[in-house]
Design a protein that fits this description.
Length: 408
């Protein structure tokens, strides 16, 4: 090959590189993410109703959330590897959204807890496939210099669901029935599947792309670091998020502060996502270090300053902003580090994140019983600090500086 002459593969890649951001498609994906997270969280808000209607203990209804997370851990990677190259990416996403709708229909019609758990298994499979395929798909349908901005738009659906999705669904269940809430979610899913078929562009892979390989992805510099640091941050978040009610009560705030605090964290995370969308492509390393440092600081100060409305909600605002931002920074980082194996690398993080969430709730319970509710935020600060150390050490791999940061 003559020096300076682009290879045919490079030429094809350049011609296939998107020139514009498909905003309509990104908004549909954000809505799909909203539906997925709302579907995951809603049983917790409707637990008493479901328990009474199905005639089982509330603890048994908790399995609707547990099996949802468990099936993601065991199916996300195998399914994403099996379907890669066999099913077009757009088709896979449309089918995944339809699977969410079907899962919610089956749950709403379930006569017994066993049927309900079966419906949730289908929803968990769809959830794992959505998050395994969505980020790599987005990276293929937007210009390379706009990946961070696109991820911020798509993943805003998560935070909106945390802030308003589950509370609205719970309110609907209170005004109508829990079955009606899931039927509404099913209707939204069916509508999104139609919009996705209409608005999502096709994602064309390079002809030379290899089959996603988890082993190859893990050998790439930085992939393992991100797959550990990112789940540690989720672990820290859910350590306190799961037990924020006893923390606030132990700090002297009333019960009403709990629902307000959860909405504060969710709404503030939208601000963090917006900030990340502006900085994830231009200053990724500086930004992620600042966000994780801010998260650790908020957790560390909550035991001392969380006894007043101003202190508690001021620090929870910082918590939400930082948490919303770190998700976008890490999502962009794993796609960069994964290179041609970005699908496998992203699938790895989907699994480790679910483990982080599950362990976070267990770790939070351990902290609650050993050091007390007042110090649960300090327990959350510990894994955050470990993640910060990993990020600092991964300058050449998972979290490298952008050219602008090097010049600065």
């Amino acid at each position: 090959m003559v020096v300076g002459t682009p290879s045919p593969e490079v030429s094809r890649a350049e011609t296939q590189q998107p020139k514009k951001i498909p905003w309509g498609g990104l908004l549909v994906l954000a809505a799909a993410g909203f539906t997925a997270v709302t579907t995951e969280l809603l049983p917790s808000g409707l637990l008493p109703q479901i328990s009474r209607d199905l005639g089982v203990d509330e603890s048994a209804v908790g399995f609707l959330t547990a099996v949802y997370a468990a099936v993601i851990v065991f199916t996300a990677l195998p399914l994403s590897r099996f379907l890669a190259g066999r099913v077009p990416r757009k088709t896979l996403l449309v089918a995944t959204v339809l699977a969410f709708a079907l899962s919610n229909v089956l749950l709403a019609l379930s006569p017994t807890l066993g049927w309900a758990i079966g419906a949730r298994l289908l929803g968990g499979i769809a959830h794992g496939m959505l998050w395994s395929s969505m980020a790599p798909y987005v990276a293929r349908i937007v210009p390379a210099h706009s990946v961070g901005k696109a991820m911020a738009v798509v993943f805003s659906g998560n935070s909106i669901a945390l802030a308003v999705g589950a509370p609205i669904g719970t309110l609907m269940g209170s005004l109508m029935t829990w079955r009606a809430s899931f039927m509404v979610l099913a209707g939204v899913g069916a509508l999104l599947a139609v919009l996705a078929f209409w608005l999502l562009p096709g994602a064309h892979d390079q002809a030379s792309q290899k089959t996603p390989s988890l082993r190859a992805a893990m050998k790439l510099p930085g992939v393992v670091a991100i797959a550990i640091a990112w789940p540690l941050l989720l672990l820290a978040h859910f350590t306190l998020f799961t037990y924020v009610a006893p923390f606030l009560l132990s700090s002297g705030l009333p019960e009403s502060a709990t629902s307000i605090s959860l909405s504060v964290v969710g709404i503030a995370s939208l601000v963090g996502i917006w900030i990340a969308g502006m900085t994830a492509d231009s200053r990724p390393r500086t930004s992620v270090l600042a966000a994780v440092g801010l998260l650790a600081l908020a957790f560390a100060l909550l035991p001392a300053l969380g006894g007043t409305w101003v202190g508690a909600f001021g620090l929870m605002t910082l918590w939400g902003i930082a948490f919303g931002a770190v998700g976008i920074y890490n999502q962009a980082a794993i796609l960069r580090a994964g290179g041609e194996h970005k699908d496998a690398a992203n699938g790895l993080t989907v699994v480790t994140i679910q483990l982080g969430i599950a362990i976070g709730a267990v770790y939070g319970a351990f902290a609650l019983t050993t050091v007390g509710a007042q110090l649960v935020p300090l327990a959350a600060a510990l894994p955050t600090a470990i993640a910060l150390v990993i990020i600092i050490a991964s300058r050449r791999g998972g979290y490298p500086p952008a050219p602008r940061e090097k010049r600065g």
